[in-house]
TrEMBL record:
Transmembrane segments: 61-83, 95-116, 122-151, 172-194, 200-217, 250-268, 314-332, 344-364, 370-396, 408-430, 436-456
Function, in words: May be a proton symporter involved in the uptake of osmolytes such as proline and glycine betaine.
One Pfam family, short name: Sugar_tr
Main subcellular location of this protein, as a coarse class: membrane
Domain Major facilitator superfamily (MFS) profile, first and last residues per copy: 21-461
Coiled coil segments of this chain: none
GO CC aspect terms: plasma membrane
Gene Ontology molecular function: any one: symporter activity
Membrane topology: Multi-pass membrane protein
Stated name of the protein: Putative proline/betaine transporter
UniProt similarity note: Belongs to the major facilitator superfamily. Metabolite:H+ Symporter (MHS) family (TC 2.A.1.6) family.
InterPro entries reported for this sequence: MFS_dom, MFS_sugar_transport-like, MFS_trans_sf, Sugar_transporter_CS
Entry keywords, A to Z: Cell membrane, Membrane, Symport, Transmembrane, Transmembrane helix, Transport
């Protein structure tokens, strides 16, 4: 009669179930992107007037976008900070810390006084910069950790599919953030929204952060990083090691991600600015008068036409477009497994380059054309963004994977996302209201990504668990 080896049974390591991985990676990035998009939406809708009340409308918008870009400057620093701990201490604790950091910063934005309050003309924008910088630090570490949580727990041959779990947080977070703003705009007057209603989306983020923390605290370490610990291969200085051993992958990863960032922030932040800008000078004067202001001569001289949609109309159009973003993010996973990451992304990037030449004809074709542009743009966004959850981590050895994928992802955010809204507005202004230069800018960024993809090798079949640098 044999006796069961109960000791061995007790020593079987715990594992994260598929459901727990999905929820933990998805809810974290959903919260992070919700917080990020809440700011992006407010940066267009209310922050220009609330934090820069003494400037003309164009300067207000550019100033608001400049603070929007501060977070992208902070993101590479966040990738180094959280990447260090993610590769040295572990994925779980680092993910909890990044989520908590983002949640606190976002909640505090909802508590800030505005520049309209006497004595806060300087301090209100300055504190907004600090909070925005903190948001960037947090997001710099969040995405990479969530991607590793998904892909380092994925079964063989399923990494690209599981890698889409955290990617879905982007469209879901966008819909939640803008849905909240939409509900508030329907239920509050313009005066109420400007006075206090804009604060509610920031304050409500605290509820989701609590839920996200509860889910993530129940995780166990990923098998890949646990093996690094067991083998004594934990890197003492991950950032130094990744730049020494994987500098080529850092460069390739940054440029592979570049077009993804540019197309997304053009389709969201820029199109919202362009779509809701007055279509005529008379409409701009009427809008200023409705707000109790008179356009200055400088504002009149610098006026360029937009599409003239109301804020609510265009937000609804954006939300419809983002639904396609979500759908094709999920579709991209199986495609990247079947055809390989590189081959699939080469085709999608070529389509993005062509898409850049359609900005003028589609924007000039009325509501149908604008809606078509949003749907096509967000479809391409889903197809290019989805595989990144697997591709960027696959470029790096396990013991520097958190740092390497985070640095590449966030350097791309500086080159692509940080400047995209600012550059797009400047090009729109320079072209006298035409979007032709904006489209060419997108195509040019697509060419850089195409070159990076041509240089890199396929990563689908690379060993993923025990490789170290």
């Amino acid at each position: 009669m044999s006796i069961p080896n109960t000791t061995a049974a007790l020593e079987v390591p715990k594992a994260n179930s598929r459901g727990r991985v999905i929820v933990a990676s998805l809810i974290g990035t959903t919260i992070e992107f919700y917080d990020f998009y809440v700011y992006a939406t407010a940066a267009v809708l209310v922050f220009p007037a609330l934090f820069f009340p003494n400037a003309d409308p164009t300067t207000q918008l550019l100033s608001s976008f400049a603070i929007f870009g501060v977070a992208f400057v902070a993101r590479p620093l966040g990738s180094i900070l959280f990447g260090h701990f993610g590769d040295k201490v572990g994925r779980k604790g680092t993910l909890v810390a990044s989520l908590l950091t983002m949640g606190i910063a976002t909640f505090l934005i909802g508590c800030l006084p505005t520049a309209l309050v006497p004595g806060w003309v300087f301090w209100a924008p300055a504190l907004l910069v600090v909070m925005r910088f903190t948001q960037g630090l947090a997001l710099g570490g969040e995405w990479s950790g969530a991607a590793l949580l998904a892909t380092e727990n994925a079964p063989a041959g399923k990494r690209a599919i599981w890698g889409t779990f955290p990617q879905m947080g982007a469209p879901i977070g966008f819909i939640l953030a803008n849905g909240v703003f939409l509900i508030l705009s329907f239920t509050l007057t313009t005066a109420q929204f400007a006075a206090w209603g804009w604060r509610l989306p920031f304050l409500l983020s605290a509820v989701m952060v609590i839920i996200g923390l509860w889910v993530r605290l129940k995780l166990v370490e990923t098998p890949a990083f646990q093996k690094v610990i067991d083998q004594g291969e934990v890197s003492k200085l991950p950032v130094s090691r990744v730049f020494k051993t994987s500098w080529r992958q850092l460069i390739l990863g940054t440029f592979v991600m570049l077009a993804t960032y540019v197309v997304f922030y053009l389709m969201t932040t820029f199109t919202l600015s362009y779509g809701t800008a007055p279509a005529t000078l008379e409409a701009a004067k009427a809008k200023a008068a409705a707000a109790g202001k008179t356009m200055t001569q400088d504002a009149i001289n610098s006026f360029v036409a937009g599409l003239g949609y109301t804020r609510n109309e265009f937000l609804i159009m954006l939300i419809v477009g983002v639904v396609f973003f979500g759908i094709f993010t999920l579709v991209s996973g199986p495609l990247a497994e079947k055809y390989g990451r590189r081959k699939m992304l080469l085709g999608v990037t070529a389509a993005i380059i062509v898409f850049g030449f359609t900005f003028v004809p589609l924007f000039g074709a009325g509501t149908v054309g604008v809606m078509a542009l949003l749907i096509i743009g967000f479809t391409l966004m889903g197809l290019t963004f989805g595989p990144m959850g697997a591709l960027l981590p696959e470029l790096f050895p396990t013991n520097v994977r958190y740092t390497g994928s985070a640095v590449s992802y966030n350097l791309a955010s500086v080159l692509g996302a940080a400047v995209a809204p600012f550059v797009a507005v400047a090009l729109w202004q320079a072209a006298g209201g035409s979007t032709v230069l904006v489209g060419l800018y997108l195509s040019a960024m697509g060419v850089l990504t195409l070159i990076a993809l041509l240089v890199m090798k396929e990563t689908r079949d690379l060993e993923y668990v025990s490789n170290v640098s």
